């Protein structure tokens, strides 16, 4: 998988305390913006929220892949979260979400966007991969398990 080119340890969080979908999108926006100055947190939040209004990005099995295109984005950027408590995300299977991979892509990167989304969905559909991520007890362990997945 191509995670090593889009995910950093600084954008990997194990045990994040988030109570709702809105708070999750705010956390993602703030975290990505703090890590990369090309992003504006409010703008990124609005882009993620607009995409989410089109339909939930909860793909089932306790996993969500919130994503959007951004004119400020120059390279595909990811953030991985393992929540300490699962939250309602209006997922396709109606199960709460505890694993989240946020994906921000350049506005014109249509093919890359679909390719990365497909690869993420395939990885997160693997029960062993999800279980491995859920057993991580630190940011470092979560990051390493994601890269080897």
Describe the structure in your own words.
By secondary structure, the protein is an alpha/beta fold. 44% of the residues lie in helices and 23% in strands. The protein has helices at 3-6, 21-35, 41-54, 110-124, 127-134, 139-148; strands at 12-16, 58-60, 63-64, 67-70, 77-87, 97-106. Strands 1, 2, 3, 4, 5 and 6 form a six-stranded mixed beta sheet that branches. Strand 2 (58-60) and strand 3 form a beta hairpin. Helix 2 crosses helix 3 and helix 5 packs antiparallel against helix 6. It is globular, with a radius of gyration of 14 Å. The N and C termini lie close together (7 Å).
List the helices and strands and how they pair.
Blueprint: H1 3-6, E1 12-16, H2 21-35, H3 41-54, E2 58-60, E3 63-64, E4 67-70, E5 77-87, E6 97-106, H4 110-124, H5 127-134, H6 139-148
Parallel strand pairs: 1-5, 3-6, 4-6
Antiparallel strand pairs: 2-3, 5-6
Helix pairs in contact: 2-3, 5-6
